[in-house]
Amino acid sequence: MRGFQLIVILLFALTAAGAPAQPAVDDASRAPSSPIAARQGADDDLAIASRIEDILAEIGPLTAVEVRVAGGVVTLGGTAAGADDIKRAETIANRVSGVVTVQNEISRDTDITASLTPTISQFEADMRSLLQSLPLLGVAAVIGLIIALAGYMLASVGSLWRWLMPNPFLAELAATAVRFASVLIGLVVGLNVLGATAILGGVLGGAGVVGIALGFAVRDTIENYVSSLMLSLRQPFRANDHVLIEGQEGRVVRLTSRATILMTLDGNHLRIPNSIVYKSVILNYSRNSERRFTFALGIDAEDDPIRAMSVGLAAINGLGVVLDSPKAVAVIEDVGDSNIILRFFAWVDQSRTDFLKGRSLAINVAAHALTSSGFALPEPIYRLRFDEKTPLPLAPFDTGEKSRSSKADVTKMQVDLDADTSPDTHVDVLVSEERQETGKGDLLDSSRPIE
Description:
This protein has helices spanning 2-18, 42-57, 83-95, 112-155, 158-164, 168-194, 197-217, 219-233, 274-279, 305-317, 355-372, 401-412, 426-437, and strands spanning 65-70, 73-80, 101-104, 107-108, 242-245, 248-255, 259-263, 269-273, 282-284, 290-300, 329-335, 339-349. By secondary structure, it is of the alpha+beta class. The strands form three sheets. It has a five-stranded antiparallel beta sheet with strand order 8-7-6-5-9. Strands 1, 2, 3 and 4 form a four-stranded mixed beta sheet that branches. A three-stranded antiparallel beta sheet has the order 10-12-11, covered by helices on one side. The protein is elongated. Mean pLDDT is 78; it is low at 1-32 and 399-415.
């Protein structure tokens, strides 16, 4: 058991020896590390006291400090203006050779005049220093302004940046970077002239912290700015393209550094932030002039659907607006309780035919051809059940003559195959006029490929 205790004590001693020494709280309270002399004479004490008093007499805030020395122990008394001065006196006393330790009994002087005098003196000294440095400060300011002005003038040469970077957004970004760099260089040179480059580190450090905070605060704006840059580099559409973006349909007016401007088919302006445009699925109707339309027609359940499809396709193919290639097709989409749903597919050239007009005309001729060939386009049938005890209102029985006569009139209708199906260009004209009026700030570039 005794051996175990010795091992524990040995480990504790090794741990204590290997542990790092604790730093001193203050240089003033640290005792001298030199060996203490075995004897200290009165002459030595007088020499120490005289040396400390001579030093303190040359320091304005410490002139009222009293010094007593006995056996190498220095006792400081009297008053000082502030806590820093009290610590300063103790530090000075500790540095004098022969001092064993210092007892600090200095009290703070609470007199208003004594407390304000050092502050006023320091302010006067700072003002004198400022007045003396005004010429140098003026020279530094002029040099910094000249450098910043030169950078701004260089950034304002738009033709230079457009020549270096054909993309207008990148040209604007480079010009902005030159302005920022010129201001920063002017500040650095000015501080170098003043000999205050240490201030620059603090300014840049503070600016970095502020920049991080602002980055979190305006991350949506930064995301929109980056999206604008990517859209200007990888353009997904051209001016006047008919697009569908995030459920919004219209023709592209222009692409700016903040948003994509559309002209809706109703003639209204629509502004979509570029951050939404960049992340959205974009449907471009203008990239391919050929576009397919579809519609459904129902026939009676007793009719022959194959023959009905042939009749409908023959009528659709007879239209000049429908393309021969790709061919129009028809399929049986569904078989209901009282009807059969046929779906027709056909293609039109949007450069010559308005999509909606061509589709409407195809629906009209297909329906007319089916009814003319004896196919019934069934109407919804509802089955009603009445209570036997409830008397039914009696009305003249409809023989259906009116219905049959109206169908006969439909059969006799002639389809106008020469109906105007040309594209509506009114929105195109509005877009062109606006682009001519507001040509600046547009990032769309027809020389770049569409991606």
